[in-house]
Write a structure and sequence with these properties.
Blueprint: E1 4-8, H1 15-28, E2 33-37, H2 43-54, H3 60-84, E3 88-92, H4 95-104, H5 109-117, E4 125-130, H6 133-143, H7 154-166, E5 172-176, H8 181-193, H9 198-203
Parallel strand pairs: 1-3, 1-4, 2-3, 4-5
Helix pairs in contact: 1-8, 4-5, 4-7
């Protein structure tokens, strides 16, 4: 039984730590699971990270184009093969990040989501880890020696957070990430365990 589980949130929300802990939980339960992140570790993914650290002049459209190319590669090389192998894929960021981050730079969020849904598998569940911006920035300062110029300024992250809070959909689950990791992880696991299995869903069909 394969599933695609996504962790989203602003920088400093704790989503990377939580997604890794969640994969550990799945593996301990005997569920085959893989952890992936976007941007990927491909050459283009590394370029995206360099741009975020070093440049404030790239256009939102060019930035989005980089992400789309990187995601197409990720879908083909990583996500679909893992799902076909009946593994649960846990993603640290996916296309909602583009909608919210590039949306904060003036692009239309729905257009970005529609573009991605034309080729990228839809998540079975997306956890949006919501954290106060001041708390997120404090976590970033405590854990990193440098800060990404594009993505970690307070005013910008406030816009990104507001975009996340506007998202709607049946498979979106908002989680209060201001609490300690253990408490947040327990809530995430509880929501995950309530997802109907494919067998349960098919059995309910007339």
């Amino acid at each position: 039984m394969s599933r695609l589980i996504v962790f989203e949130g602003i920088d400093g929300s704790g989503k990377t730590s939580l997604s890794r802990l969640f994969v550990k939980y799945l593996n301990q339960k005997g569920v085959p699971a893989v952890w992936l992140r976007e941007p990927t570790d491909s050459a283009l993914g590394n370029k995206i990270r360099r741009v975020a650290q070093e440049s404030e002049h790239i256009s939102p459209q060019q930035e989005l184009d980089y992400f789309i190319q990187d995601r197409r590669w990720d879908v083909e090389k990583n996500i679909l093969p893992a799902l076909r192998a009946k593994k649960t894929v846990v993603l640290d960021r996916y296309f909602y990040s583009n909608a919210c981050y590039q949306g904060a730079r003036g692009m239309d969020m729905n257009t970005i989501i529609d573009l991605n849904m034309s080729f990228a598998p839809r998540p079975d569940l997306t956890f949006i880890i919501d954290v106060d911006v001041d708390r997120a920035l404090a976590r970033i300062r405590d854990s990193r020696s440098d800060m990404a110029k594009l993505f970690e300024k307070k005013d910008f992250l406030m816009k990104v957070r507001a975009n996340y809070l506007q998202l709607t959909g049946p498979n979106l689950q908002f989680i209060d990430g201001n609490r300690d990791l253990g408490t947040v992880l327990a809530e995430i696991i509880d929501h995950f365990e309530k997802i109907p299995s494919p067998n349960d869903m098919s059995a309910s069909q007339p």
